[in-house]
Structure formats: C-alpha cells, structure tokens
Design goal:
Lipocalin; 9-stranded antiparallel sheet; about 130 residues; alpha+beta
Length: about 130
C-alpha cells in the first residue's frame, strides 16, 4: 500500500538521483568518441584504423603513391590530432590536426601528407 510518508521519502532522495544523472552526462561528454574506433575506407584505397589504446594506422594514396602511417591520435571535441611516428616503416615526425565529423556511417576529415598536400576524405566504416 501507498502511504504519505513514502511520498516524502522519494522526494528527499531526488537530489541524489539528479546528481547521479548529471555525473553520468559529464562522464559521457568527456569520453573519447567510441564511434571513431574501427576501420574506415574509401574507394581510392585510403584506409584509417583507430584503436581504443589511442593508436592508429593509415594507408593513404596521393598522386598514385601509397604511404603507410602509424602513430597516436587524440580527440578534443571535433579536432582530431594524428601524431605520425612511422611512414612506410621508417621514423618520421608528422602532426596532422584536422576537423572530423561522423554522419551515419561516413567519416569526413582532411588529411595532410608529409609534403603538406591536403586531401579531403569521405571514408566509410568497414569494421569495428
């Protein structure tokens, strides 16, 4: 049965529930975006793979030349920073900062290669 004391007990606990809800929203807002993880490819054989440990691999074709990159990535809001440490297996120091966006199953970003040539890419998610 329902009594009046039970009604007031529920309202006394409401601030605890609200605080928990706000904490959950803050946590999810600060977490790195899980939709970015996985492998993304396009019809030009460009492929990016982002891993949960903050590393990435990329195979990019520019002007008929294939290049393989490895390194670390970080995300701050819609800015994606790619710190490349290897190019075709050799050590390099290349940082690419780009705006990124995911709409549905498509990833949009601008890649800048070691020659500072910018390439706008639309990549499709091919695996998680």
């Amino acid at each position: 049965m329902f009594n009046m004391n039970m009604k007031y007990t529920i309202w006394k606990k409401m601030p605890v529930f609200l605080a928990f809800g706000v904490a959950c929203m803050i946590y999810t807002a600060c977490a790195e975006p899980a939709p970015l993880y996985g492998t993304w490819s396009d019809n030009l054989k460009n492929t990016f793979s982002f891993f949960e440990d903050g590393t990435f691999t990329a195979k990019v074709t520019t002007g008929g030349t294939n290049a393989s990159y490895e390194g670390n990535f970080s995300v701050l809001l819609n800015a994606l920073t790619l710190d490349c440490s290897k190019l075709n297996g050799e050590n390099i120091d290349l940082r690419v900062v780009t705006e990124w966006d995911i709409r549905g199953n498509m990833l949009y970003l601008d890649w800048v290669n070691e020659d500072r040539v910018s390439i706008s890419m639309t990549l499709y998610k091919t695996s998680n």
